[in-house]
Each structure stands twice: as structure tokens, then as C-alpha cells.
């Protein structure tokens, strides 16, 4: 839904940008390096992009780090990614705190290992008073999985008699989603030339603008980020209405 908080003045930049950080594997392979090397270089870009957000009025940045489908990869790639996530949190926590970044995670934590979940919880708590940039990391996230989990919780409320089926509408469902604390994304950027959304923020992106760019994520600089954000202002977002 486009909430009041969500609406952007025409000609201005997006408040909430979501990124499908794709192309790490191809970036590494084309250099004769293991795919994990690409993931490491991709993680470095995250810092650059997060830091650039305040300069462009981007208050919310949501990044797709690991999908519910990514478990299909080799055991070694999955294990390497999980280790990278743990190390990323351990290494970046201090800077994120100091730079005013509030970090939150979306996705199903049940399948993640205990150590990683503990680090995620700690980082959320540590940065919970920050408000300069809201960074949301989608980890073991899938839009359909999220809707399934939300529906299950909603149904349990109905079964317990705390919610009436007659009162269930879009707003109710949105409250049960992992993203209940976020406005909808204004702009979704996918790198690496693939023009698909791969199960990312299905509900939330109903009225997002999309940018599919050829650059592989490890090559995605803050200059290119600025260029993409600049193009957003020219778009006529009608939300189904007719503009004068
Ligand atoms: C995106 O890069 C990162 C994750 C999905 C974890 P990929 O690993 O999908 O890179 P490509 O698409 O194989 O190049
Ligand atoms: C989407 O990229 C998931 C992340 C960026 C974390 P994928 O590389 O997994 O998506 P597909 O397989 O190309 O659709
Ligand atoms: Mg990919």
C-alpha cells in the first residue's frame, strides 16, 4: 500500500530503495576466481551504498542477501555465505552503530544457525536507537514464504478469537509481514541484467518502480547508485490515478 508516510513528492528521490544484489558469482567467475570471492567483494559494496543513502534522502535501504531458494546451491557456497554473514555482522557492527544505521533482518530465522541468529539479534538491539538510515537485510527471505508465515500467524489469532475474519483486510495482513515496520519500497534495483524479482518483496513492491541494470553487484558504485536515483525523479507515479 502507498501509505501517507510512503508518498514522495513528484520530482524527488525515493525514500525506500530495495536492492536485489545479483551477479557476485559471475563477477568472480569471469575473473577466474571462486564464487565466494565475488560474495566478499559484493559485501564491500554494501558499505559504500549504505553510506551514500543520507546524501540522497534515502531513509530506508533493504538488501536481498540470501533467498529461501538459495539453499539449492552447493553446500560449500551456502556455508561460505553463512560464514560471510556472521563475519559481516561482527566486523561492521561498530561502524554501523557509529554511523547511525539501524539494522533489522527480515526472513525466516528458523533455518539459520543459532550463532548467526544470535549475532542478528544482537545487532538489531545494538542499533535499535539509530535513525539516520534504516538498513534491512533480507536473509533466508522469500516473498511467498513470508506471506505463508504471516497467514499462519494471522490464522492463529483468528482461531484464538482475538481477530475476527470480518476485520481482515490489506492493513491487517501487512501487520503480520516481516516488513511491518517498513514503508513500501519506492524503487527496486536489480543488478546483473536479470529482469526478474526472484521472490523478493512480492506484496510490498505492488507499486514500486523497478530498475534492472546490467552492472554486476561488485561493480555497483555509489556513482551508479546516484545515477539510478536521479532517474527516479523523472518517473510519473500514478498509483492507478490520473495525473493532471
Ligand atoms: C547474488 O549473486 C548473491 C546471492 C544470491 C547470495 P549470485 O551469487 O546470484 O551471482 P550470480 O547471479 O551467480 O552471478
Ligand atoms: C536473488 O538472486 C537472491 C539474492 C540476490 C539474494 P538469485 O541469483 O538467487 O536469483 P535467480 O536464481 O537468478 O532468480
Ligand atoms: Mg544470481
From TrEMBL:
**UniProt keyword annotations, A-Z:** Magnesium, Metal-binding, Transferase
InterPro entries tied to this protein = UPP_synth-like (IPR001441), UPP_synth-like_CS (IPR018520), UPP_synth-like_sf (IPR036424)
GO term, biological process aspect, one: polyprenol biosynthetic process
UniProt xrefs under Gene3D superfamilies: Decaprenyl diphosphate synthase-like
- Listed GO CC annotations: cytosol
- Binding of Mg(2+), residues: 22, 209
Question: Under which EC number(s) is this enzyme classified?
Answer: 2.5.1.-
Which is one GO molecular function term here?
magnesium ion binding
Question: One Pfam match, by short name?
Answer: Prenyltransf
Q: Which EC class is the enzyme in?
A: transferase
User: Cofactor stoichiometry and binding?
Assistant: Binds 2 magnesium ions per subunit.
| Annotated residues for binding of substrate | 23-27, 35, 39, 67-69, 71, 73, 190, 196-198
Required cofactors, per record? Mg(2+)
> Residues in the active site?
22, 70 (proton acceptor)
SUPFAM superfamilies referenced in this protein's UniProt entry, alphabetically: Undecaprenyl diphosphate synthase
Q: Which family does it belong to?
A: Belongs to the UPP synthase family.
What functional role does this protein have? Catalyzes the condensation of isopentenyl diphosphate (IPP) with allylic pyrophosphates generating different type of terpenoids.
Matching HAMAP family: ISPT
Self-association and partners: Homodimer.
- PANTHER family the UniProt entry points to: DEHYDRODOLICHYL DIPHOSPHATE SYNTHASE 2, DEHYDRODOLICHYL DIPHOSPHATE SYNTHASE FAMILY MEMBER
Query: What protein name does the entry list?
Result: Isoprenyl transferase
Q: Which organism is it from?
A: Palleronia pelagia
Amino acid at each position: 500500500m502507498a501509505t501517507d508516510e510512503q508518498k514522495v513528492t513528484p520530482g524527488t528521490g525515493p525514500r525506500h530503495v530495495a536492492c536485489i544484489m545479483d551477479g557476485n558469482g559471475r563477477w568472480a567467475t569471469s575473473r577466474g576466481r571462486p564464487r565466494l570471492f565475488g560474495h566478499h567483494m559484493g559485501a564491500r559494496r554494501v558499505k559504500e551504498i549504505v553510506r551514500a543513502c543520507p546524501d540522497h534522502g534515502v531513509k530506508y535501504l533493504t538488501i536481498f542477501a540470501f533467498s529461501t531458494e538459495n539453499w539449492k546451491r552447493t553446500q560449500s557456497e551456502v556455508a561460505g555465505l553463512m560464514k560471510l554473514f556472521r563475519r559481516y555482522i561482527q566486523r561492521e557492527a561498530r561502524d554501523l552503530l557509529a554511523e547511525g544505521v539501524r539494522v533489522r533482518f527480515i526472513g525466516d530465522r528458523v533455518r539459520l544457525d543459532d550463532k548467526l541468529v544470535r549475532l542478528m539479534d544482537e545487532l538489531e538491539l545494538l542499533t535499535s536507537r539509530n535513525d539516520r538510515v534504516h538498513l534491512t537485510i533480507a536473509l533466508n527471505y522469500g516473498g511467498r514464504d513470508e506471506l505463508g508465515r504471516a497467514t499462519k500467524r494471522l490464522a492463529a489469532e483468528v482461531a484464538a478469537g482475538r481477530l475476527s475474519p470480518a476485520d481482515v483486510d490489506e492493513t491487517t495482513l501487512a501487520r503480520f509481514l516481516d516488513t511491518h515496520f517498513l514503508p513500501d519500497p519506492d524503487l527496486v534495483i536489480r543488478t546483473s541484467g536479470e529482469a526478474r524479482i526472484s521472490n523478493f518483496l512480492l506484496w510490498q513492491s505492488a507499486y514500486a518502480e523497478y530498475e534492472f541494470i546490467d552492472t554486476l553487484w561488485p561493480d555497483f558504485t555509489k556513482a551508479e547508485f546516484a545515477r539510478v536515483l536521479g532517474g527516479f525523479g523523472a518517473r510519473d507515479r500514478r498509483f492507478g490515478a490520473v495525473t493532471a
